[in-house]
Each structure stands twice: as structure tokens, then as C-alpha cells.
């Protein structure tokens, strides 16, 4: 596959800067000797993340007797996993220059894919759940770049595809020169993301190409592919909910997923998605 990321970066115009604070938080959370003060100091550098964290800590979900008014106390209340998800999702949202229905649909689809990827990785693979969540969340980051560059033109892409006049990637290539997975992989490479996440973004529509090259990345792509089927099943994103035979999805077949496990995951997925959406899309 074409992967001249440097040319893509040059041709796509101004790319969003790497979300520095969110990236720093993720680095800290990987440290086994992490201190709560270091984490609180990093969170405090970004007023948006700080405000969101305090809002979550004071939500009905946590039933606090006294109002949480400090970042370190909020971290204790919500825990590292919620902070990690907040940092990941903020890293995506911060790249968007405009907000509207198009962005909202893309955002909800990204959250849905991230949540499904985490659940699928946990039940069907030995992959790191956080890595799967991040890969699912960022798989359509290229669409964000395209919308930032020309929102009206990308809206035209969506309309052409909805009318059945072309496949998504073909229409994207016709109007933007590149399809979203190429643009997304180029951006993540530009941000110095791990190679596995970059490759998962690049090949998430073509996972078979990785089967003989990299088993772990192939498995990660299969997880993302199956998570995308979950999103289609529940109508998250640009399309209406549709009947999807989950056991026959490419990702399911690649993972050799047990249909009974898939049925359990399907029942658990939507409530988990709603919970996450309510936390971060207020």
C-alpha cells in the first residue's frame, strides 16, 4: 500500500498539533512508580481536561457527599482508567476545528469503536485493552483532518456514498486525493504514535494484507474491524442501524470468534457505550 506519509502531510495542509498534555498523561499512566501528585500536576496544565475531570468526579455516578474541588481528589475518586479514557478522547476532540452534526456523528462512531475494541480485545485476544481502545478511537482520525481541511467537500463525500454512487474510499480519493486511512496513518506517524497503531489505522479496511507480516497488528486490525461491525449494527456514525451478521464479519472470522461470546458482547456493548458517551459528550 502507498505510504508516503511525508507527501500526504505536505498535501493535506495544516495538520493539528499533537495533543501534548493528553500524550504526557498517557506516558505517566504507563509508569509503574506513578505518583498521584505528578499526575495531578500534568492534568492541571490543561484547563479543559481539569474541568472535565472535576465534572465527572462530582457527577451523580460517583455519589460524593462533599463536592470534589481539587484535581488530586478527583483523580482518587474517578481512578486511572477514567482519566486514561478522558485523555484519549480529548486527544481526538482537540483536533477538530469545527463542531456540528457531521463531527458529532464521527465522534460518536469513534467512541463506539473504541469501547467495542476494548471489550473485544479483553474477551477474544491477549492484546492490551488500552492499546485496542486507542486504535479503535483513532481509526478515523483521517476523516477529522479532511473535515478540517474542507468540511463542505467532505459533506459531499458522505452524500455521494449515501446515494450509493461510490464506495467511501473511492469517493475520498476522487475528491481529496487520499482516503481516510492513509491520511490518518500519516497524521499518527507525524505525531510519533507507536508503529502498531499507525499500521492498524492504515490497514483497518485491509487486515488480510497483514496476516503474513505481523500477527499482533493483524489481530489488532481484526479487533477494530469487528468493532466497526458493532457500530454499524447499532447505527453509530453516518449510517442507520442495519442488520449485521456479526459472526460472519471479517474481524470475527479472523479472530475465530465464538458466536455465543459475540452475542454476549453485543448485549453488553450498547450500555457501556452510552455510559462512556454520557461521561464525555456532555
From TrEMBL:
InterPro entries assigned to the protein according to its UniProt record, in alphabetical order: HDOD, RNase_Y/CdgJ
Domain HDOD: 15-207
Domain of life per record: Bacteria
PANTHER family in the cross-refs: PTHR33525, RIBONUCLEASE Y
Identification of the protein by name: HDOD domain-containing protein
Species for this entry: Pelovirga terrestris
